[in-house]
Amino acid sequence: MQASSGFVSSPHATRINRVDAVMLQVCLAMVPGTLAMVWFFGWGVLINMALAVVFAVAAEALVMKLRGRPVLPAISDYSAVVTALLFALTVPPTLPWWLTLLGILFAIVIVKQLYGGIGYNPFNPAMAGYVFLLISYPVATTTWLPPNLPEVLDAQGLSALSFLDSARLIFTGALPPEQTWDAISAATPLDEMRTKLDQGMGIDEIRASSPLWGDFGGRGWEWVANWFLLGGLYLIWRRVITWHIPVAMLGGLLLTSGAFWLLDPQTYPFPAFHLFSGAAILGAFFIATDPVSACTTTRGQLIYGFLIGVLVFVIRTWGGYPDAVAFSVLLLNIAAPMIDHYTQPRVFGQRRRA
Amino acid sequence: MLFSVLNPNRQRLWRFHGGVHLPDEKALSNAAASVRAPLPAQLVVPLQQHIGAPADVVVKVGERVLKGQMLAKPQGYVSASVHAPSSGVVSAIELRPIPHPSGLRAPCVVIDTDGADAWGELPEPMPDFQQRDPAALRERIRQSGIVGMGGASFPSSVKLNPGPDQPIETLVINGAECEPYITCDDLLMRERAADIVDGIGVMLRIVGAKRCLIGIEDNKPKAIADMREAVVAARGRLGEAADRLRVVEIPTLYPSGGEKQLIRILTGKEVPSHGIPAQIGVVCQNVGTACAVADAVLRGRPLIERYVTVTGRAVAEPRNYRVCIGTPAADLVAASGGYVGELEKLVVGGPMMGFRIDDDALPITKAANCILALTPDESPDPGEPQPCIRCGRCAEACPANLLPQQLYWHARAKDLDKVQDYNLFDCIECGCCAVVCPSHIPLVQYYRYAKTESWAREREKRASEHARERHAAREARLERLERERKARLRKKKEAVAAKGGAGQDAKQAAIKAARERAAQKRAGEQADAGAKPTEEAPESKAPADKVREAKASVDKAPVRKAPVDEVAVDKTAAEKAPRAPNNTGAVAAQPARSPQARPEVRAESQ
After folding, report:
1. Which among A16, A347, A354 has the least Cβ separation from residue B435?
2. What is the H or E stretch that residue B551 is in?
3. Which of B387, B395, B439 shows the shortest C-beta gap to A120?
């Protein structure tokens, strides 16, 4: 058999899909959510994305060169770009540039390329890079800005960061004149909820205590989630992903959070809060669905997604970190091959699966 | 559900997993009526155009043959005869290249045609087939050289003989023609609907099915209408049998025309894995086969021509031809105005499952339904395969519900056990996975490779098992001979002992005395005791040997197991030990290894 004689063998018909087209669809689907992020959290989001993409493509090219493999096909499949964008969407818009570099290098060089490059990485590179930073630099990776809404900013006497302010903050770490970190930063809704629950406050009390709270989750945050949801539905419509993982993951999160909420609505936030806070929606449609590290069988995807959803609730509620999508995805990445093994579909004409 | 309420007459349909929607490209060739292809000066008729044993040639070089005359008769049960497609003189019987994926040459009868196209003597028509014995009808089909014309070319007489233990409930007629570009079945149904229905009538008579479902994809509305009309018109000829026929419109989805897929769509039943449709009471035949059956039974004509689509954007005038078997593909392309533009590749069959040929002189066979001349635009080079990103589109598209990407990993790693765990042999090589793969991996090629390797390994395994059995038998035989020899020796010894018992005692006493003297002498001189064991050995070994031999001779079962008994173990170990340097050291070093394992080790080391 000749390795490159795919052209000789059937099928002779035109191939329908392309990897780069798939990756570009994913990038396109991120646009609405990204715009919402920029709207609510400032230019830092975009600066981080640009930095991450440059770092990721450079790292990918460098490693391919060191491995003696063709560079161009590797970077023109846009998989490094997707990793970079997802990474940039999960880190705070104030993250220093060198942390972005560190996270991306970890994601691309160690998690992706050292395992053999695209298709061979057992873990989601973007989430591994993010978790690496989260554990190593917990303060920098959890310092968020408040949403850029007049009622929120006015209540705290803040003003939004300009493009130059954001760039200066990211590249030099210098705050705008006469500003302090305490003044410009705010806890994320998940963080806030967690801290105040730990202080013994009830849910109603917490929600009444701050202008951060919106209808479901935090102000701004819930809209970001909505726009990512739109992008996710686009991906399903374009058949880039199937509904199984997102629906199972959100279902798992809804079911567990709903059950506990019914038990005690003052200690456990209502299900929609979980859904529209943090990275749940982004995770369900864009992160957990990373084909390389997820399950591939249909039933496996349902189990995989559901368990991610459950773990997100468990870690958010009883774990040490306010959000848990990255941890949950990585944990289920480990389990994916085993789930796949036990969920092989019944083959046509066979009574039971092998 | 709603449809069945609104339209109770509508045939219920089932779905199979996966499949892909492809641009059907049928409009290229389905507009015009079929044309009789010009008779070539030379016909090259392969002796094996079917699955099974090659036909046995019955004509000689230089012999004049008439149209329809048998050139080769079936050899064995699974075989089919071959007939002269036109009159002429046999100019050669030799190896010629034939259209086959292997590209190999095969024995062919070459006929220089005389242009008279004169019919030879044909068997009598059987218009009264409804009253005929099914076995006689089957024999006619067999003698007429009819094979499955959908592409598999399995002898139809065999398929129409499922046996009394497999009652056939449904006859499925395949008019789906799901491959893009091909329209020969479409044209056949439009032009010879009545003959197809008659052929179905014959087959119903043979298998005694309660119903017949004719599945046609909904991208062929004209064929569906014509077939329905023909079924209605056949009431007069077929009588009650015509009421059992039903033309069913099925959604266009590749590969609905696969036998297992079509049966699933029409009956909801799944052909068991590694099984045949007869096991679930179904026989499936192509419309082309039905038409050939009608020709054979109603007119006595053997299978000597077929509909062939010549299409693709690299031929000037794509259309369908009625072609004599053995006509070179090049003649058909020439009849279609020759090649235009850039020819990327020439394919026999469809773009999904057909195979590429590099020489257009190859003859049309009974199974060749399409000559496809593709331009680079129609069949672009997919480029270097990219790494699999496990996106799972292949699994979504797989009509057998396999996990193609797992098969790919294991086929690539040459892990033949694993590929079989993932049901490699349920793969029908339809190409859906490869065509949807975003990384453009030639998946089907990997599966073919893994299948071939598995078959080769299976053959090797069988061969080594055979060698092992032979080896074990040899060991047993040698062991038996040795035992017999020893038994004879023992008998002789006993006889001698019985004869001179007293003398023996005296001898023994003398030996004992001499030995004692020697011992005393040695003790005094502090000499080494080197000679002692050599003298003692025969004495100490003899009783143990006798016990063993007695036991062995009691065990009078000269089966393959013989070398398993203790004697054999000792023997082979003893035999092996001196040969150790030639053999694997491990064998000699472990004489206590289980006896069953030993022949295997030997077989490997040989």
Report:
1. A16
2. helix B531-554
3. B387
User: Same domain for A40 and A176?
Assistant: yes
Decide if B270 touches A, using CB distance below 8 A. yes
Mean pLDDT of the A312-341 span = 92
Contact status of B450 with chain A (Cβ, < 8 Å): no
The residue out of A127, A156, A186 marking a domain boundary is A186
Report, as an integer, the average pLDDT of B468-473.
93
Query: CB contact, 8 Å: B354 with chain A?
Result: yes
In whole angstroms, what is the distance from residue A116 CA to residue A110 CA? 10
Whether chain A has a CB inside 8 Å of the CB on B395: the answer is yes
Instruction: Map residue B320 onto helix, strand or coil.
Output: strand
Q: Is B421 on the interface with A (CB under 8 A)?
A: yes
List CB contacts (< 8 A) between B312 and chain A: none
Question: Please, what is the average pLDDT of chain B?
Answer: 84
pLDDT at B584: 40
Q: Count the neighbouring beta carbons within 10 Å of the beta carbon of residue A243.
A: 16
Clarify whether residues B397 and B481 are in a common domain: yes
Sequence-ordered strand ranges (E) for B205-290: 211-217, 245-250, 282-286
- Amino acid symbol at A306: F
Q: Which domain holds residue B436?
A: 392-488+596-606
B65 or A163: which carries more pLDDT confidence? B65
A22 Cβ under 8 Å from any chain B Cβ? yes
Residue range of the domain that includes A281: 189-342
Asked if B468 and B602 sit in the same domain, the reply is: yes
Residues 245-304, chain A, touching B (beta carbon < 8 A): 291-292, 294, 296-298
- A60-84: pLDDT as tens digits: 999 999 999 899 988 999 999 999 9
Which of A186, A215, A241 marks a domain boundary? A186
Please tell me whether residues A132 and A172 are part of one structural domain: yes
Instruction: Please enumerate in sequence order all residues whose Cβ is within 8 A of that of A330, keeping only pairs 6 or more positions apart, or say none.
Output: A123, A124, A127, A128, A131
List all residues of chain B from 237 to 266 with a beta carbon under 8 Å from chain A. 260, 264
Half-sphere exposure of B299 (CA within 13 A, CB side): 14
ipTM: 0.86
For B542-585, how does the pLDDT look when each residue is reduced to its tens digit (9 = 90+)? 444 554 554 544 444 444 444 444 444 444 444 444 443 444 43
Asked if B434 and A118 come within 8 Å (Cβ–Cβ), the reply is: no
